[in-house]
Write a structure and sequence with these properties.
- The protein contains two helices and 26 strands.
- It is mainly beta.
- The longest helix has 17 residues.
- The radius of gyration is 24 Å and the shape is globular.
């Protein structure tokens, strides 16, 4: 309760001070700063989108920092359906929702657009999510308990201001996130490593951006400058103080039209990463340049370029990768696409924490380099409302991240994970189906296969990179006010280093929501309906069958 009061005191002056800003705008994503990301087909973690109402001018652009996030009650790659679904864009200025379930699963979100004019937009968002329930271990160790309480608390606050001039936009965004959780995973009694019952993480970011807003300009541009801090309270070894990661990131984008069908562009970015209270780590930086040429007509779209990454104090200095994308509408209902991409990726704590929080807080993560990621696919829309797509690909990776157990020199498991960089290549394939019948029915299904092999010829699989994964989602709207949803997700062939295979995941969920008015609705959901026992990672059991009921207000 004291922590909640402390956060409230922090939030109120933050929101009031945002009203005094007069020239900047927010723009940030967790995965990569100011770079739109298309999730690989292997990730199925949201229900099918519904058609949003037409809005002439969207005052707020939601981001990963500002929309509700799912509880980590499942594996991160298959988050629990319905625990804090992202708020839909709506014509209201504010929203509030709250949900409560067993295991003390709790989620609450609130946001308000303080300013909403053509020239000025100011919004503030708050988010809470937590869980505190007992889970049973699926493994046993002599002298160790058979169950333990899984605790997790997350609080976020974000403010965003934007001012629009006649030909450009200026903006600033800032936010704070607090995480508190315990390392509840199974570990050998008495081993070295994290012995504290809990961990705390404090994150902060501040970003400014300027961008041209005239689509007919001879040169369109954008530029941003941001700072991110990610700090632990405790280190990996007992008694160690936690370290902090500091990232300064700048980027720009230039687009110059040649004619109505083509243009040339140049994207650039510079990132510097430094650490406090971590003697084993030294600062490093990277400059990235991505020149490209684009051309399109009614049936064909082509973009050809190259990405150059120049590293400072971080291994090989020069890295190159292709950036080629080609889309061809062969006939109106048949599309072909292919892309050849790659490049170096900085795996900061800020980035990898999106996959799991339970990793070694004193170990710097290897940065990855992809010389080639080639993909191609076909999509057929021959029947009304029905679509089918097939895809395949091949990827070559250097220091590809796999989550493995952190162990002592004697091979004893410490209950903490670590990201290891492994040189490997992968063959990929995917199949997806979707069907929509007006606003009454909507369904989708997907299955993906990905086989990673080390350069030495051995197969490598980890819990967060299963060989098979996919799911089915169905939405039925018998009434305008009533929405019914059901889903099934699976992940098969999962391993955890030398500890071997862990059970496959087969999870069923259902959800129902009813809107009594345009501003008030209720929802209820059940996750892991079959009460399957499985591990998020080895020795880290997930929750069994769970329920949640909640309310949603728009005002």
């Amino acid at each position: 309760m004291k922590r909640f009061s402390f956060l409230t005191i922090l939030i109120i002056p933050f929101a009031l001070s945002a009203q005094q800003a007069d020239s900047l705008r927010r723009e940030v994503t967790i995965e990569k700063d100011f770079t739109p990301i298309v999730r690989d087909a292997s990730k199925i973690n949201t229900l099918p989108e519904v058609e949003a109402p037409t809005v002439t001018r969207q005052s707020i652009q939601y981001s990963d920092w500002t929309v509700p996030a799912p509880l980590e009650a499942r594996a991160v790659l298959l988050p629990a359906g319905g625990f804090g679904d992202p708020a839909r864009e709506n014509l209201k200025r504010g929203y509030f929702d709250f949900g409560l379930g067993n295991y003390w699963n709790m989620v609450g979100n609130a946001g308000y657009r303080i300013l909403q004019s053509e020239k000025d937009q100011l919004g503030v968002w708050l988010q809470h999510r937590s869980t505190c329930g007992s889970v049973d271990y699926n493994q046993t160790l002599p002298g160790y308990e058979t169950s333990r309480t899984m605790r997790q608390l997350e609080e976020r606050v974000v403010a965003d201001y934007r001012h629009s001039f006649e030909k450009l936009d200026l903006g600033i965004r800032g936010g704070y996130r607090y995480d508190s959780f315990n390392y509840y995973g199974l570990r050998f009694p008495g081993v070295q490593g994290i012995a504290s019952p809990g961990q705390e993480i404090n994150r902060f970011f501040l970003k400014s951006r300027i961008a041209s807003s005239n689509p007919d300009a001879q040169l369109r541009y954008s530029a941003s400058l941001a700072y991110y801090r990610y700090g632990y309270q405790r280190g990996y070894l007992q008694g160690d103080k936690g370290a902090a990661e500091n990232v300064v990131a700048a980027d720009f984008a230039l687009v110059a039209p040649i004619d109505p069908s083509s243009d040339i562009a140049l994207d650039g970015a510079f990132d510097y990463v430094g650490y406090n209270r971590l003697p084993s780590a030294s600062g490093y930086g990277m400059l990235s340049l991505n020149p490209r040429y684009s051309w399109h007509n009614d049936r064909v779209s082509l973009s050809a370029g190259v990405k150059a990454d120049i590293s400072f104090n971080n291994g090989t200095i020069f890295r190159f990768a292709p950036d080629v994308r080609f889309d061809w509408t062969i006939v109106p209902d048949l599309q072909f696409y292919t892309l050849l991409t790659g490049g170096k990726q900085l795996n900061t704590w800020h980035r990898v924490s999106a996959r799991t929080l339970y990793f070694n807080p004193s170990a710097v993560v290897d940065n990855s380099y992809t010389p080639l990621d080639a993909r191609l696919g076909l999509r057929v829309n021959a029947l009304r409302g029905f679509s089918i797509g097939i895809s395949g690909g091949y990827e070559i990776g250097k220091n590809v991240l796999f989550l493995e157990p952190e162990q002592t020199v004697n091979g004893q498991f410490t209950g903490v994970s670590r990201f290891w960089g492994i040189d490997a290549y992968a063959w990929k394939a995917g199949l997806d189906l979707s069907y929509r019948y007006g606003t009454l029915w909507e369904a989708s299904a997907r299955v993906d296969y990905c086989r990673w092999t080390t350069t030495g010829g051995g197969q490598v699989v980890s819990y967060d990179r299963p060989q098979w994964q996919g799911g089915v989602n169905v939405r039925y709207n018998p009434l305008a006010e009533l929405s019914l949803e059901a889903g099934y997700d699976f992940a098969a062939v999962r391993k955890y280093g030398v500890l071997g295979a862990i059970p496959d995941m087969h999870l069923v969920r259902v959800k129902a929501s009813y809107a009594f008015t345009s501003w008030f609705s209720l929802y209820g959901l059940t996750d892991n309906l079959l009460n399957r026992k499985y591990d998020i990672a080895y020795g880290m059991p997930a929750q069994g069958i769970s329920f949640m009921f909640g309310v949603d207000f728009k005002f």
